[in-house]
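Lab notebook page, bench 4
Experiment: in silico fold of construct C2
Operator: M.H.
Input chain length: 283 residues
Purpose: comparison with the prior construct
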Amino acid sequence: MKKKDIAAYLLRLTEAVERFAPPLAPKPDFSSADAFIWRRSSGGEFHPVVSVNCVELALLKGIEQQSDILFNNTQRFAQGFSANNALLWGARGMGKSSLIKAVHGALSNRGTLKLIEIHREDIDALPDLLLTLSQSSFRFIVFCDDLSFEGSETTYKALKSALDGGVEGRPKNVIFYATTNRRHLIARNIMENESATAINPNEVIDEKVSLSDRFGLWVGFHNCSQDDYLLMVFSYVDHYKLAVSPELVRSEALEWSITRGARSGRVAWQFICDLAGRLGQSL
């Protein structure tokens, strides 16, 4: 076969391969929104969130100290200074994910700070996400809600490496925030069960606890008191101008918390939604 015939054949072969190859993911347009959801299952596309489900930072009562810590850390990052990855852990319904979204909302008005949500099941692909984000001029909060690991899962190792343990390290324009009900992300009984069959039990526990150590900032959330719960309720009542007597609000809010068996920011918000609906108002 002549050289020109070989060249023509290779060209046709290349064109055929290109036709059957999956299309490249479009280059993300991060200027189109302030927040995105990243899904590996859809080819690693960034889905813009037109309206982020968040409340104003000032409405998050009972967690003022946690709010100040996270806001200051995020503000430094948004200004281009050093900041830490943050793990928000503790009681259910106390505003961990709400605080992350509220802080982003308070600091995203300049348009350079973006919020990227990654789902728990896609954590092992976090290095791919970070690589894409590192090529952008924007600054990103990568956010994973309700992060924890069960049984023999090993995806936590990818997270450890991506946060700051790999050769490349975390991109300077990316910070990682996660929420969890567990301080160490992995249930203690799972670590103890694995340790029982290990040659050196302490090494098993140390390896998995070290995942939490990758977060320079630990922000704890605890069950709220009755006073804090009522403070949350009345804050919402005032903000949304709900026309109802304080005595009725107090009695109904306490009854609501008793029927739910808990007091938290989430329970307070659910009560307010119910109250507003009965008053014929939309929040």
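Observations: Residues 226-278 form one domain. Residues 29 and 143 are 19 Å apart (CA to CA).
Next step: discuss at group meeting.
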